[in-house]
Design goal:
The structure holds two protein chains of two kinds.
Chain A: E1 6-17, E2 20-32, E3 37-41, H1 48-55, E4 63-72, E5 75-76, H2 82-88, E6 93-96, H3 110-120, H4 127-140, H5 146-149, H6 159-171, E7 177-181, H7 189-206, E8 209-214, H8 217-223, E9 226-231, E10 234-240, H9 241-246, H10 251-258, E11 307-309, E12 315-317
Helix pairs in contact in A: 3-4, 3-6, 6-7
Chain B: H1 6-9, H2 11-26, H3 28-45, H4 47-50, H5 82-118, H6 120-135, H7 138-149, H8 153-180, H9 183-190, H10 195-231, H11 243-250, H12 259-286, H13 288-293
Classes of the chains: A alpha/beta, B mainly alpha.
């Protein structure tokens, strides 16, 4: 088996605020293989975006990465200097942000913004060649009449078009990993499908691995090969999409899947997970999910769960599956 | 690839420019401001062609003449033509104001953007220093500095600049703080851009609008301040044609020869009013939300 493209090991990111230390990420571990679309799911505030920002070292004060390793092609990103990091960011790892309305500079023409990326990483020199390349990239993300859009300002484009411009910018340097942080959340449903299919086709054409962050299980089911589920700053379950959707093991994953409304069933009420996301300043002891877990035992509140291997690809962090504890 | 025409490519800019023109024409006060300043600039640039007399040419036989056909605004106690002195005074005061505002806006903005972008201890140091400067009344501090340096126009420019930069530093810092949190700045960082690149390409263009408005409004204030320094003898020295100095001299003859002080005073009034109206107008025009609501 080849080494994974990105491997996050025991990542801890804390935010030091007035009210106390927010333990946003507590021991997050997962990996992304070459050429796959990887999904990271979890509810709002569980630390998905913090994980992505940590992976690019974009965490700013009062936040701090306090432990762990982020291995990108075997190199630990946490030990690199800012200069070395700048050569990786945008060049080998790119990131698409959630809100396409805010992630383009309102004062720069689209063409110039896309060109800047190429200039920063010195992929193309300048002049006519650069212009041609920009148009070519915009055409790749299926923007209509890219020659005209090059001269437009962001306010002249719709949300979906802007998100496509963002994707174009981010893949223009031929990165090896594209991080998409909730790429479709701010868009309406019909545009979502377009954006996802563009991301998929980018993966095929440019041989880029994709890391999608979302709270939408539909997005995952549609696009991803493998996923990890996060809860309150920890990864609770990882596996192939099929395994996980058909055989969810962690009570949280089971709850998430049950909470999806089904079109063919008439239900008065949707299933929900009781309780709410814990305050990460004083997270629950032991397994962070145990106060909301219907099957939690006494020991769940005392000791955190260990990672249990179910199959070669399926892992779950829950005490119910450790040796000797198995119910099924 | 098909090349589109210049008109076609700049369609949106032309449209906005036309809209700006339309707004200016509709709003009487903005229009008055722009016209006043336009006329003042014209007078300053073409001063030698407008006046018949040298502004420092003393004709003692013509002392304290009332306004007449040969001296339309009269003469002062040294027999210098007041109209000529006012025109050249406009020129001198505009140069002083542009110099001060230019220095202060550039220096203060750079400091403020740098301070706001990087934050931390340096930010704290710059901003507390700015606080100290702002704790003094502007004129008092400027007077003290000008007095120490010795009275001259150049020294009054230095003195006012030293008291004025915190305004821009604070303004630029505040704007920077809000811009740097926007997603496109983070996106740029995620793309591997350097800090200097982000500051010049993303932050500066986005904070320049409030700086420009402040600079225009400050032109009026700075003219007043420079005139005040000259008035109390710490700026321009006789026989330089400076408006504040002219008022100071004319004050001695106010009872019998009213025109000596009155016309320079009126000129300052009109000039400052013009800049304030223009500044207000620019603020409305440069704000994309406000400009729509003006219609």
């Amino acid at each position: 088996m080849t080494a994974p493209l990105l491997e996050v090991k025991h990542l801890k990111t804390y935010f030091y605020t007035y009210e106390g230390t927010v333990r946003a990420l507590e021991d997050v571990s997962f990996h992304i293989n070459r050429g796959e679309i990887f999904g990271l799911v979890g509810e709002t505030g569980c630390g998905k975006s913090v994980t992505a920002r940590s992976a690019m070292r974009l965490i700013e004060a009062p936040g701090k990465i306090v432990g762990g390793e982020i291995l990108f092609k075997g190199r630990d990103l946490l030990s690199l200097s800012e200069d070395e990091l700048q050569k990786i960011r945008g060049n080998q790892i790119s990131m698409v942000f959630q809100d396409p309305m805010a992630s383009l500079n309102p004062l720069m023409k689209i063409g110039n913004q896309v060109a800047e990326v190429l200039k920063i990483h010195k992929k193309v020199e300048s002049g006519e060649k650069l212009r041609k390349r920009v148009v070519e990239i915009l055409r790749m993300v299926r923007l209509p009449s890219p020659e005209r859009i090059v001269e437009n300002y962001p306010f002249e484009l719709s949300g979906g078009m802007r998100q496509r411009v963002m994707i174009a910018m981010m893949v223009s340097t031929n990165p090896e990993l594209l991080i998409a942080d909730e790429p479709t959340t701010a868009l309406d449903v019909s545009i979502q499908a377009q954006i996802l299919s563009i991301i998929k086709s980018m993966k095929e054409k440019m041989d880029v691995s994709v890391w999608i962050i979302t709270h939408d299980l539909g997005v995952i089911a549609e696009t991803c090969d493998r996923l990890c589920v996060m809860y309150a700053g920890a990864v609770v379950e990882c596996g192939n999409v099929h395994e996980l959707f058909q055989n969810p093991l962690h009570p949280y994953t089971q709850g998430l899947l049950k909470a999806i409304p089904k079109a063919h069933e008439k239900a008065e009420r949707l299933d929900t997970i009781p309780g709410s996301v814990p305050n990460l300043i004083s997270p629950p002891s032991g397994c962070r999910f145990h106060p909301r877990c219907a099957r939690a035992g006494r020991e769940c509140s005392e000791r955190g769960a260990e990672k249990v291997k179910i199959t070669d690809t399926h892992f779950v962090s829950c005490r119910r599956y450790t040796e000797g504890n198995r119910e099924q | 690839m098909k090349k589109s025409s210049w008109l076609d490519r700049h369609r949106s800019q032309i449209k906005e420019a036309k809209f700006s023109l339309f707004l200016v024409r509709r709003n009487l006060l903005i229009l008055v401001g722009f016209i006043t300043i336009g006329v003042m600039l014209g007078l300053a640039v073409f001063a030698p062609y407008i006046t018949h007399y040298d502004p420092t040419d003393m004709q003692f036989s013509q002392r304290l003449q009332a306004p007449s056909a040969s001296h339309i605004l009269g003469t002062d106690d040294n027999g210098m033509d007041i109209f000529s002195r006012i025109i050249f005074g406009i020129r001198l005061d505009l140069i002083i104001a542009i110099a001060i505002v230019g220095v202060v806006a550039v220096f203060g903005t750079i400091l403020g953007v740098f301070s706001g972008y990087h934050g931390g201890k340096l930010d704290e140091l710059y901003m507390r220093t700015a606080d100290i400067f702002m704790a003094f009344p502007y004129l008092l501090l400027a007077m003290a500095i000008a007095a120490v340096l010795g009275p001259s126009i150049f020294h009054s420019i230095i003195a006012i600049s030293i008291t004025w930069w915190p305004v821009y530093a604070r303004l630029a810092r505040g704007a920077t703080l809000s811009v740097r949190e926007r997603d496109f700045v983070e996106a740029s960082r995620a793309l591997g851009a350097r800090d200097s690149y982000i500051i010049f390409r993303h932050i500066l263009p986005n904070v320049i609008a409030p700086i420009m408005v402040q600079a225009t409004l400050d032109m009026g204030n700075v003219i007043l301040e420079a005139a005040a320094l000259s008035f109390i003898g710490l700026g321009a020295q006789a026989p330089q044609p400076e408006l504040g100095l002219m008022i100071s001299i004319g004050r001695n003859f106010m009872r019998d020869y009213w025109w000596v002080a009155t016309f320079p005073g009126l000129t300052i009034l009109i000039m400052v009013l013009g800049f304030n109206l223009m500044g207000d107008g620019l603020r409305d025009l440069l704000d994309p939300k406000l400009r729509r609501s003006l219609v």
